[in-house]
Amino acid sequence: MKIEQEKRYALLLACKDSDYVKKKYNGYFNVFLEAFEDEGETWDLFRVVEEEFPAMEDLHKYEGFVVSGSPYDAYGNDLWILRLCSLIQTLDAMHKRVLGICFGHQVLCRALGGQVGKACGGWDIGIRKVIMQDESRHFKFSERLEVIPKCVSIIECHQDEVWQVPIRAEVIASSDKTRIEMFSIGDHILGIQGHPEYNKDILHSLIDRLLANESICNCFADDVKASLEEAEADKEFLEKLCKSFLKGE
Predict the structure, then answer these.
(1) Which of 37, 115, 137, 225 has a beta carbon 3.0–4.6 Å from 164's, enabling a disulfide?
(2) What is the pLDDT of residue 81?
(3) Which residues contact 228 (CB under 8 A, 6 or more apart)?
(4) Burial, 215: exposed, middle or buried (Cβ in 10 Å; 0-12, 13-18, 19+)?
(5) Which residues are catalytic?
């Protein structure tokens, strides 16, 4: 009888757990598990923001990796960010599947030869509609997805963005605020500027934190919160897209 090999994935966590997320979800790791984990899988957590990385000799054990969001700049030269860039280059050479979200999307771009920096339009916070490109040409990894909509609503919270994708990359989604909302390289690299893993309550808590540290003003925060009352993210589709990519289905 053939024994199926256990599928293993790794979350490379580039942020520290907020008090809210610790209290509500017992940490961001559980937020990602809720969004992306399937039965029978093993997920490992590496807090790269705290210099905790997978051993090089263990990389082959993983089917895929997820790089999370972060309050840090993807173009910064903190030691752990430079080390993360080096790891991403190794995973790319190994043709390992890597999903980058927000900061992860930007650091994927930087590591593989693109350019990132401050967003020309300033903060983008809320739920934004992004326009998907020609799916038949771009979505090499998503054959399981029966329908890819022309527009997808996703939670956003960023003030940096991808300026230019790596030479091998294809832009697969854009919005009126951010020109490069998603990009892919072959069937093993996917960057998403928004947060497919977030629920609206997490975004509300982030808005409160940004307001408390004076990163945004009261009127901006009030406008965003008001907009969230009417809008909903296409969370089910986005999670399915990410899982289809990570698991090669």
Answers:
(1) 115
(2) 98
(3) 126, 127, 200, 203, 204
(4) middle
(5) 102, 195, 197
The CB density around residue 41, as the number of other CB atoms within 10 Å, is 15
> 6 exposed, middle or buried (CB, 10 Å; 0-12, 13-18, 19+)?
exposed
CA-wise closest residue to 83 among 29, 47, 57, 115: 47
Residue found under tokens 């909509």: 149
Residue pair 12/65 in contact (Cβ under 8 Å)? The answer is yes
Kindly state the tokens that stand for 34: 């809720």
Say how many C-beta atoms besides its own lie within 10 A of residue 82's C-beta: 12
In the structure encoding, which two tokens stand for residue 62, read together? 């993983």
| 70's tokens | 């972060």
Helices and strands (H and E) in the chain: how many: 8, 11
Q: Tens digit of pLDDT for each residue in 116-166? A: 999 989 999 999 999 998 654 556 566 666 678 889 999 999 999 999 999
Mean pLDDT of the chain: 92
Could you report the per-residue pLDDT of 88-125, keeping only the tens digit for each?
A: 999 999 999 999 999 999 999 999 999 999 998 999 99
- For residue 249, give Cα distances in angstroms to 30, 63, 68, 221: 23, 12, 22, 39
Q: Structure tokens of 224?
A: 């965003």
Instruction: Tell whether pTM > 0.85.
Output: yes
State CA 232 to chain mean position distance. 18
Return the H-helix or E-strand segment holding 42.
strand 42-46
pLDDT digits (tens, 9 = 90+) for 19-72: 999 999 999 999 999 999 999 999 999 999 999 999 999 999 999 999 999 999
